[in-house]
Write a sequence for this structure.
């Protein structure tokens, strides 16, 4: 078993065992217990009462966080030639089609998010496996296959994020940085949680939220009281 550092053990002492915290009281403690020397990310983990073996119980969606995530993302836009300049002016680091596809075939994948026009998706078939294994394949359900390229790039740069249940029915997301301080993280977290709750599949009966926890990169987690939601 990995030995916990003294700094981590000291941080744990500030969190009461078995206590479920209100969101407003959890965030100050969360920031105080961050153990990193760098500007750590603030993560949210939501365990849902869903069975992801059934397609209609997969929870997925997008949300523009009011204060962004604090993470700079590089965007690749697969667009026809007449939209290349517009995509770059909107903030895409890479834009194009054939040349961009060839670079990816060579293994040059230097971006975090890929978006595409609907009409170019057939051409992406030749790199679908490469992008798919890295979770980068544009997808209509994630809002990354769109006719509104400029608007989508702008939203992503402002803080648009995708959420999706993993194989265990858990959603993992970023809601900011430690440097954001309390209010921004509070508002981002409230918006993220509401978006997920609003995405509850009609086939799910009974309790939807099983647990919610907040944590910072390499820091201890704080479980939230679900009654407030």
């Amino acid at each position: 078993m990995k030995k916990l550092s003294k700094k981590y053990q000291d941080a744990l002492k500030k969190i009461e065992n078995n206590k479920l915290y209100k969101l407003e009281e959890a965030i100050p403690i969360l920031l105080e217990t961050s153990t990193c020397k760098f500007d750590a990310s603030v993560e949210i983990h939501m365990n849902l009462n869903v069975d992801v073996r059934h397609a209609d119980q997969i929870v997925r969606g997008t949300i523009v966080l009011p204060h962004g995530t604090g993470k700079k993302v590089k965007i690749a836009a697969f667009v026809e030639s007449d939209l290349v300049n517009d995509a770059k002016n909107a903030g895409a680091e890479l834009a194009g089609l054939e040349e961009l596809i060839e670079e990816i075939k060579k293994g040059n994948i230097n971006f975090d998010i890929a978006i595409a026009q609907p009409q170019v998706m057939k051409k992406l078939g030749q790199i679908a496996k490469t992008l798919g294994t890295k979770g980068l394949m544009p997808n209509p359900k994630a809002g990354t296959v769109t006719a509104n390229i400029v608007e989508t790039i702008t939203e992503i740069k402002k803080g648009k994020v995708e959420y999706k249940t993993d194989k265990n029915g858990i959603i993992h997301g970023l809601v900011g940085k430690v440097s954001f301080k309390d209010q921004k993280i509070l508002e981002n977290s409230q918006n993220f949680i509401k978006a997920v709750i609003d995405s509850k599949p009609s086939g799910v009966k009974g309790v939807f939220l099983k647990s919610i926890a907040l944590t910072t990169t390499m820091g201890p987690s704080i479980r939230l009281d679900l009654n407030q939601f």
